[in-house]
Specification:
15 helices, six-stranded mixed sheet, Protein-Tyrosine Phosphatase, Chain A, alpha/beta, single chain, 2 domains
Length: 422
């Protein structure tokens, strides 16, 4: 059976794409011998910054000679990206073997696609059970399939903001409810809380985890950083200070994510991380489609000497930090945007200031996306808005001058299509 065929079979096991409950995956994992009970896991929840924080964790741990198994979602180009074992993306054949075993043992019982993939990841960890595991919480923590662990090393709460509101009751679509869903079921080992976009959000998190007996570490109370000249930042916590080169990933928010990763590792017992591991790990970390510059390929050839950045921001919180970075650039900025239909399009675009043009596009192969034409109508009150059916036509329609920059953003799915095209 081919990989695509087994994926299709698994997608048909449940009428809903997402069904936020844990009974099905718990039952399946029990049949598998509960492989999730044997892993040493750092769990990461939040709205923005999960993937980048995991990238910094992975890079620092690699410098310290720790092997990692990593589970993230969604993928950018191929589903194999979600399954990293021993620091390598899984092969088609190995992934096929895991999914076939899941399908056979599940024996046709109702199971969502994400639950099947999550069970497969836990099963795959059995082969590398001495490795550290880095795993994202997805949509909402309480009902997320990753949230069936009985113990872990720590929980990281990255920046929280409004997203996936369509999964909440209409009368309760608030940041307080989002934080409740993400943080009310955290395990009581260690909790590291990243820098948040407002004091109020930090207070909501504190209140929600106040009865959790975990060791708690908050940005600006237990660890922080300050920017220094010459492309360095200075990190400080109870273990001391450390001068670190800025990451190669663009945006100050990446320094925030790096600091969260550092705080997490420096506060874990039995994890031996030295200063040089941190310095080298932060410097080498990378994350696909997070303010990533496209330096070669078809897209780059279209713009010649101009710069193209690809960013997968898709919610207001992500838009805000993206635009904080864009405002630091002294050049004309041209934005190409495609989005999924269930996003807050108006609030997302409200953070874009002083841009020279805005071009909406369709996202191919995504039936749940909003058409570029409809997105243009949503943005009709903004200056210089136009529609083009695809990325190539959008780029060619922009009158680029020397020093201008193009930013392609709005969706991880759009980012994947751009990378495949490139």
């Amino acid at each position: 059976m081919s990989l695509q065929k087994i994926l299709t079979k698994l997608q048909r096991l449940h009428p809903k794409e997402i069904d936020l409950s844990l009974d099905r995956i718990k039952e399946l994992c029990e049949k598998l011998g509960n492989p999730q009970d044997d892993i040493k896991c750092i769990q990461v929840c939040g709205t923005n910054g999960k993937g980048s924080t995991i990238s910094f964790l992975r890079s620092i741990l690699k410098e310290a000679n720790y092997k990692c198994n990593i589970y993230t979602s969604p993928h950018v180009k191929v589903i194999n990206e979600r399954f990293v074992y021993n620091d390598e993306i899984i092969s088609d054949n190995d992934l096929l073997d895991l999914l076939n075993e899941i399908h056979e043992i599940n024996n046709g019982q109702p199971l969502t696609y994400f639950e099947a993939l999550t069970a497969a990841f836990f099963l795959g960890c059995r082969k590398y059970k001495d490795n550290l595991v880095l795993a994202e919480f997805g949509l909402f923590g309480r009902g997320d399939a990753v949230n069936i662990l009985k113990k872990n090393l720590c929980n990281i709460i990255t920046s929280c903001s409004e997203d996936h509101l369509d999964w909440l009751p209409e009368n309760d679509r608030t940041i307080e409810r989002i934080i409740y869903e993400k943080t009310s079921s955290l395990l009581n080992s260690n909790i590291i809380v990243a820098k948040q976009t407002s004091y109020e959000i930090t207070q909501f998190i504190k209140k929600n985890i106040s009865k959790n007996k975990a060791n708690k570490f908050f940005f600006n109370e237990d660890y922080n950083f300050v920017m220094k000249e010459n492309d360095f930042f200075f990190y400080k916590d109870k273990h001391g200070g450390l001068k670190i080169p800025k990451p190669k990933m663009n945006g100050q928010f990446q320094i925030e994510n790096a600091s969260t990763a550092i705080a997490s590792l420096r506060n874990l017992k039995n994890i031996n991380i030295e200063d040089q591991h941190i310095i080298d790990g932060v410097k080498k970390a990378n994350n696909t489609a997070r303010l990533e510059e496209i330096k070669s390929g078809k897209i780059k050839r279209l713009v010649k000497n101009n710069k193209v950045l690809l960013d997968s921001s898709h919610n207001p919180g992500g838009s805000k930090v993206l635009n904080d970075y864009l405002q630091s650039l002294n050049c004309d900025k041209h934005v190409i945007v495609g989005m999924m239909s269930n996003k807050d399009h108006k609030k997302y675009i409200s953070y874009f200031k002083n841009i020279s043009s805005l071009t909406t596009v369709d996202i191919p192969n995504q039936p749940n996306s909003i058409s570029g034409k409809n997105l243009m109508r949503v943005f009709k009150n903004l200056p210089n808005v136009k529609y083009q059916p695809d990325i190539v036509k959008a780029i060619k329609s922009i009158n680029l001058k020397e020093g201008d920059i193009i930013i392609i953003t709005g969706s991880l799915y759009l980012a994947g299509e751009v990378l495949s095209l490139n």
